[in-house]
Design goal:
Shape: globular
Oligomer: single chain
Low-confidence stretches: 10-17
Mean pLDDT: 84
Order of helices and strands: HEEEHEEEHHH
Strand content: 15-25%
Amino acid sequence: MTFPQHSPPPRRVSPGGRSWARWIVVAAGLAVLVVSLIAAVGPYRQTTEFREMMACERSGGGCFGAEGGTIADRRTYTTTETTTHTDADGRTRTSTRTITHHEITWQRADGTRQARDVDARFYAKAEEGRPATLRLWRGEVVGVEVAGGAAWFPPEVKGSLAYWLYLAFIGLGVLLWGLLPVRWDGVLMLAYRAFCWTAMGFLPVHMAADALAGNLGTGLALTAEIVGCLLIAAITGTMLVRSLTRRRP
C-alpha cells in the first residue's frame, strides 16, 4: 500500500527578512553620504578661499605669492573624441573630432618642473627659455605670467572636493535605493541603474567644484558646458526612471 507523498510548501522570504536587508542598504548609503560630506568640509573651505583670492586678484592684483621661474618646454598634442548620437528612430550615428592641446612646462627655482595645458594665445607667448612669474597659493603654482599674458589653474584641493562630493552622490544613490520600493531584478539591472546614477551626477558634481573654485568658463564655452551637462543628466536620468517604472513580463 502506498501513500501519496506531499512535497513541503516553497519557502518564502518573510517581509521581516526583506526589511532587514533593506535597512542594511539604507545604513550603508547613509554612512557613505555622511562620511563623504564631513570629509568634504576641509576641501570646501580651501576651495572657496581660493575663489576669494581669485576675486581679489581680478580686482586689484598682487593677492597671490610670486616666484621667478622659466618656461622649460612646450609642445602640442592631439586627442580624438568620439560621440555617439541616437535619434528618435533608433538610428545611431557616430562622429569623431580631433582636439589640439597646447602644453607648457615651467621650472621653479628649486628645479622642479610641472606641465599644464593652456590656451593657444598664452602658448604663443610662452616661448621656451623665457622667464616667467609663477603665482603661488599655499606653496602650489596656480598661475603663470609671461610677456603680459597669464594662465591660471585650479588648485589640487578642487579635485579632492570633487572626489568627496561625487562619493557623497553615490552614497545618496545607495540610500535612495534602500528607501524606495524597488524590486530586485538581478545583478545586471542593478549594474545598469548604478551606471545611470553615477553618469547622471558626474558632470554636475565637477561643474559644482569648478564653480566653487571660480574656475568656470565664460561665454560660449560655459554655455556649451552647461548644455552638455544638462543633456547627459537628462538622458541618463530618463534611462534610470524607465528602468524603475518598467513593467515586469
